[in-house]
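Reminder to self: C-alpha cells first, then the designed residues, so the page reads top to bottom the way the pipeline ran.
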C-alpha cells in the first residue's frame, strides 16, 4: 500500500472497488463524504447551466471494466457535448507526476475531453507542468481544494456596443476582464498575472470586428493583420485546419514574427454581423497544448445581444451638472453623459452633451473621439468629416491619431479622396512643421497606394526624407516605408501588365 494515499490503491482512478472501499467504516467515510460533497456543490455553483452529477459509473473504452467518476460535468457547446471528469483525492502529501499520468489514462478511458484532480494537500510543480503541457489532446488540470473555494473567474462577457460573447477560459487558465484599447479581455494560466503571462509567452486576448460598420470577411481581416505585422519585419505565416462550428466560419493562422520572439496564433469566428477573434502568444515549445486552449475558446464562445440601461447613472450625472460646476469640470461631466448615452445606443441623445462639451473644451481628445463615433452612427457624413479634421489637428505628430481617423473614416463611409483632402489641408496648414508634414505624406501614400501607385511612391519618398531628420535609422516607420514602396512597385507592374 502506498502511504501517500488515504483512499484507493496507488495509481487507481475510478475503479468500482475503490469506490466501495470508501464506504467501509474503517476508511473514515464521513470525512471523505463531506469533502466530496463540498467539491460537488462548488462545481454546481461554477457551472449553473451544465449537468453536474456525482458518483457516475461508466464502462471503460479500453479497460472494458466499470469505472467510477467522482463528479461528471456535461455541457452543451456549439460543437457538441463536452465532458469533464473531476477526481477528488485525500492525500497525505502533494500530488506528483504519477497521479497526473493516472488521471490522463482515466479520463481517456471514460471518453471525456477534460479532467481535473482536486487535492487537499497541494501539488508539485512537475505535476502541474505535466497537467498543462501533456502531449495528447486531453486537457488536464490540478486544483488544491482551497484554490477551488477561491476560484478565479472562469467566464466573462466581453462586449463592444450591443455585441457580446459569453467566453470560457481554457482549462487551467483564468479570465482577466481589464479592458484596454488593444483588447476587450485577456486570459492566462492560473497563478500568473498579465505581466508575467506576457513575459512567459503564454497569453491570450480577445477582440471583435463589427461587420456592419466594415463588412470584411475573416480572410480579409486576416490579410490586413498580416500586412501590419510585416511592417515590424520578417514574418512567416501558415494556416491550418482547426475545429469547426455550424454557426460560424472558423479560421486559424499561425504567425512566426521574428520581432515577437514567439508565435502569434489567431483564431477567427466569422458570423453574419461580427468577427470574434482570439490572439494567442505562445512559445514554439508550448504551441501544441496552447493552440488546443485557443481552440477551446473558439469552440465555446457564444454570441449574445446586450441591452444596457444607464438611466440611473445619467440621472446622477445630471445632478452634478445642476450644481453649476466650473467650466473644465462641466465639460468633463458632459463628455461622461454623452459616453453613457452612446453606450446605450441613444446616439441622438449623446450628440448634444458631447457638442456642448467640445464647445467648452475644444481640444479634448476623448470628447472629439466620442463625438466622432456618435456622428458615424448617426450617418452625418459632413459633420463627421469636420470633426475628423479637428481630431487630426489635435496631435499631428502622433500616428495613433491618423490610425484612429482611418478606422473611423471607413465606418463613416468617407472616400479615399475625402480623407486625402483632410490630410492635405492639414499639411498645408502645418507648412512649418516637418514632422507633421512627414506623417501627412506617409498616410496620404497609404490612401493612394491602390489607386495611384506612382503618386503614392512620391509621397513615401518625401516622407522618408523628412523622417530621417527626426527619427533613428532603426525606427519601425522605415521598415513600413520599405514595404510600402515595394507594394507600389508591384501595383505599378500589375497596372502595366493589364494594359
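Designed residues (499 positions):
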Amino acid at each position: 500500500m502506498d502511504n501517500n494515499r488515504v483512499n484507493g490503491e496507488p495509481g487507481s482512478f475510478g475503479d468500482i472497488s475503490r469506490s466501495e472501499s470508501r464506504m467501509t467504516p474503517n476508511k473514515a467515510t464521513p470525512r471523505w463524504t463531506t469533502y466530496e460533497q463540498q467539491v460537488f456543490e462548488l462545481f454546481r455553483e461554477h457551472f449553473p447551466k451544465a449537468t453536474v452529477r456525482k458518483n457516475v459509473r461508466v464502462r471503460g473504452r479500453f479497460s472494458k471494466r466499470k469505472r467510477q467518476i467522482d463528479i461528471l460535468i456535461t455541457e452543451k457547446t456549439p460543437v457538441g457535448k463536452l465532458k469533464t471528469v473531476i477526481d477528488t483525492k485525500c492525500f497525505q502529501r502533494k500530488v506528483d507526476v504519477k497521479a497526473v499520468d493516472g488521471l490522463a489514462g482515466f479520463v481517456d478511458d471514460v471518453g471525456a475531453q477534460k479532467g481535473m484532480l482536486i487535492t487537499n494537500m497541494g501539488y508539485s510543480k512537475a505535476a502541474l507542468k505535466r497537467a498543462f503541457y501533456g502531449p495528447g489532446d486531453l486537457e488536464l488540470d490540478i486544483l488544491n481544494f482551497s484554490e477551488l473555494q477561491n476560484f478565479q473567474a472562469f467566464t466573462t462577457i466581453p462586449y463592444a456596443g450591443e455585441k457580446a460573447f459569453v467566453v470560457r477560459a481554457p482549462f487551467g487558465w483564468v479570465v482577466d476582464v481589464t479592458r484596454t484599447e488593444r483588447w476587450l479581455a485577456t486570459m492566462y494560466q492560473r497563478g500568473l498575472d498579465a505581466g508575467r503571462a506576457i513575459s512567459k509567452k503564454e497569453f491570450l486576448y480577445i477582440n471583435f470586428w463589427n461587420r456592419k460598420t466594415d463588412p470584411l470577411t475573416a480572410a480579409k481581416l486576416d490579410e490586413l493583420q498580416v500586412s501590419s505585422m510585416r511592417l515590424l519585419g520578417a514574418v512567416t505565416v501558415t494556416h491550418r485546419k482547426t475545429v469547426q462550428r455550424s454557426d460560424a466560419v472558423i479560421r486559424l493562422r499561425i504567425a512566426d514574427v521574428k520581432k515577437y520572439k514567439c508565435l502569434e496564433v489567431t483564431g477567427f469566428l466569422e458570423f453574419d454581423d461580427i468577427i470574434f477573434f482570439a490572439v494567442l502568444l505562445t512559445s514554439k515549445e508550448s504551441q501544441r497544448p496552447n493552440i488546443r486552449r485557443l481552440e477551446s475558446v473558439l469552440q465555446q464562445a457564444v454570441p449574445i445581444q446586450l441591452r444596457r440601461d444607464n438611466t440611473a447613472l445619467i440621472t446622477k450625472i445630471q445632478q452634478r451638472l445642476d450644481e453649476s460646476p466650473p467650466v473644465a469640470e462641466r465639460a468633463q461631466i458632459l463628455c461622461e453623459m454623452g459616453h453613457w448615452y452612446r453606450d446605450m445606443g441613444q446616439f441622438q441623445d449623446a450628440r448634444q452633451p458631447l457638442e456642448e462639451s467640445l464647445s467648452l473644451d475644444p481640444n479634448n481628445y476623448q470628447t472629439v473621439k466620442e463625438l466622432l463615433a456618435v456622428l458615424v452612427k448617426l450617418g452625418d457624413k459632413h459633420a463627421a468629416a469636420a470633426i475628423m479634421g479637428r481630431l487630426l489637428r489635435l496631435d499631428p505628430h502622433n500616428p495613433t491619431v491618423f490610425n484612429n481617423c482611418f478606422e473611423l473614416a471607413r465606418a463613416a463611409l468617407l472616400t479615399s479622396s475625402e480623407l486625402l483632402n483632410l490630410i492635405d489641408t492639414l499639411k498645408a496648414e502645418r507648412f512649418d512643421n516637418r514632422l507633421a508634414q512627414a506623417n501627412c505624406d506617409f498616410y496620404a501614400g497609404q490612401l493612394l497606394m491602390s489607386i495611384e501607385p506612382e503618386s503614392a511612391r512620391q509621397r513615401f519618398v518625401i516622407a522618408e526624407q523628412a523622417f530621417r531628420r527626426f527619427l533613428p535609422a532603426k525606427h519601425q516607420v522605415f521598415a513600413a516605408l520599405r514595404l510600402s514602396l515595394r507594394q507600389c512597385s508591384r501595383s505599378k507592374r500589375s497596372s502595366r501588365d493589364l494594359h
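The longest strand covers residues 66-77.
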